[in-house]
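UPAR/Ly6 domain-containing protein, Astatotilapia calliptera. Tokens?
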Amino acid sequence: WTSTCFSSSYSCVYLCLCLLSEALRCNRCVPITAGGSCTNTVETCQRPDEFSLCSFAGYSYFKRCMRRADAFALKSISSFNVFTCTDDRCN
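Tokens:
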């Protein structure tokens, strides 16, 4: 019984670690110049403290992974409309 209980606990911990370590996937579209066009791709965020972000400033925009602290700093600039989310490809 002890062996079975330990094995089940180990499997549960392993599953939780796999689920928690899954990285966020975001749409990425960053024009080379302001107001330019870009091709949408999908990127995997590299850090656990990143959001998917979509930002509009005047006639330009971009979508990408961004650290939470940087996203909140960008939100404080009145000329930017910034939307953040934490689900895969939600931006």
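Strands lie at 25-28, 41-44, 50-57, 60-67, 81-85.
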